[in-house]
Amino acid sequence: MKETTPLANKESFTSKFSKKLRNAIFVDGATLKSTAKAYLYLLPALIIIVVFSIYPIFRSLQLAFYTDFNFFTREGFETGTDNFTYVLNSQTFHLSLRNTITFVIGVVPLTIIISLMIALAIHSVAKGTAFFRSIYFLPHITSTIAIATVFQWIFHTQSGILNYILSWFGIDPIAWLGHPDWAMPALIIMSVWSNLGFGTVLLLAGLQTIDKGLYLAAKVDGAGKWHRFTTVTLPMLSPTIFFLSITSVIGSFRIFGQIFALFRGPGTANSALTVVYFIYQQFWEVRNIPRASAAALVLFAIIFAITLVQMAVGKKLVHYK
Amino acid sequence: MNIQLQNLTMAFNNNPPTLKGINTTIKDGQLASLLGPSGCGKSTTLMLLAGLYKPTEGKILFGDKDVTNKEAEHRGIGMVFQNYALYPHLSVLKNIMFPLKMKKVPKAEAIERATKMAKLTQIDHLLDRKPGQLSGGQQQRVAIARALVKEPELLLLDEPLSNLDARLRLEMREEIRRIQLEVGITTIFVTHDQEEALSISDKVILMNDGEIIQEASPLDIYKTPNSIFSATFIGSPPINMIKDGDKILGIRPENLKPTAEANSKFSGTVTYRETIGRDTLIKVKCGENTLNALLETGDIVNFGDTVHLTAEKENIYNFDASTGRRV
Ligand SMILES: Nc1ncnc2c1ncn2[C@@H]1O[C@H](COP(=O)(O)OP(=O)(O)OP(=O)(O)O)[C@@H](O)[C@H]1O
Ligand SMILES: [Mg+2]
Q1: Which CATH number is A225's domain given?
Q2: I need a labelling partner for B316 at 20 to 30 A (CA). Which of A113, B119, B140, B203 fits?
Q3: A309 in a structural domain
Q4: Which pTM was predicted?
């Protein structure tokens, strides 16, 4: 083996580092001028991200540790970890966390499975005309308030279409929005429906990238429909499904707007109180910003941990090209 | 198992037919190549044989069984696709084992048979790799092993060599022939490369525009072309075509020999000279025709020389100028 002096090592390290830095800032073949121009185009987006995402993250990190804080002057005095102690011991927070987890466990698999079924059905018939594409993307872009308003009608105990359909099967009217046991299912149904557009579009795009030759090969190898699905479609779609599961877990943990719009509150007996709703209550109703910030950080830690676990599991199951 | 195609016709949707009534028989244990220009219907024929397409008309017989309406997954054939179509998420071993898994062969036996096939195709040291980590030639062997592992009675190969570089193509086509003879399997090999077809097959089926133009052994199709198409498609450098009244004369370059002026059939000046391995290719301008002649090393001819060429009568093919058929 060739001997290298520590100095030579160090040099190669610094030159490697500066090369990496250059590659991070410059695109291949870009000049200083074209790079400056590119950053100028990016500036508006960067400013928005800094003001509405980056700054709030650091600000809430700071706020969470104030134990004495004036809501109106936004001034903090003493610091400590009391807010975290409060949040972690609060019965209401525990309830909100349980509700949120129930929601995530209900929404994510249903979203993925139903989106996949719809995507497969569409893929096998129409080759996705523009008309169809806008139809199934509609739930994704319709405002939450509009969706909730329609669902309030669908879920209505006396005149709702859902109870009407259920009555055909002899099922008594259900108080979807009023009864604590039915609030979470109602919320899950509505959320799954609003997620379907995004999920379907994503999975359809994934289906379209699958090499058709693999299906032919599987057929020749003697694979029937089911085996073609499990040996070609699922593995080839696994990166898309994985991406969808990560984004919908994160999105579902942040559920708030739908609850507000559907129940005009946290639901009967806090039955639809989720973590973000808890944060909202602490902020606007209790007016305790540090506590709201602490709860937000706890939620962040939970989402982060779960995403890490998903990534680790995903590495084993997902096939990347 | 003899393979028989009877009046096989295929029209996609409402388009004019791609295959216009193909009739042929491929004998048990033989390697037949389907040769023809791009778009002539070679892959379509193969897809029909595999059962991946259903013909508009006609029949396919495996032995004496009519399989025309049998689904691909039940025909039990082996097929190597042009792009190999290996399952990218499965290891080489699992790729080869897949057809056996579909046949519910016990796992231990499946592993044993797959390993045996991997040995035959000389990829047994790569069993744990994923297809993405293999070279083109190695991927092709995996595809062949996967096609052969279930011991099918028919092997279909759709331009399996077209993704490889020149050297590997030569190696792999010998390899395919070796494996085919060793297993003794009836094989249909699609190619648009005439040299490839001539070198490995027992029978060449020459197609053009959805029809079979000629089928014969490599030597016969080379020596006795039945049409202008056949004569010009096969052979490199290409055959000379000389207009002579309402006939066209075809003479292969290697059949044109230098001779004394008195015996000469064609005389002209050398406008081009090139050495191809052991032989020398010259172009000779005779009136309105430019003839290619392949000379042996002994005949020394230089650029600008006047040469006199002749050919034996049996090596001059006469074609009817209007029908393009041999007369
Ligand atoms: N699925 C299809 N739908 C409609 N037309 C098709 C289809 N498959 C093939 N064709 C047409 O049939 C003709 C023959 O195609 P085929 O793929 O059999 O040619 P080929 O001889 O294999 O050519 P190549 O050497 O380029 O692979 C072509 O004109 C092609 O456009
Ligand atoms: Mg083809």
Answers
A1: 1.10.3720.10
A2: B203
A3: yes
A4: 0.81
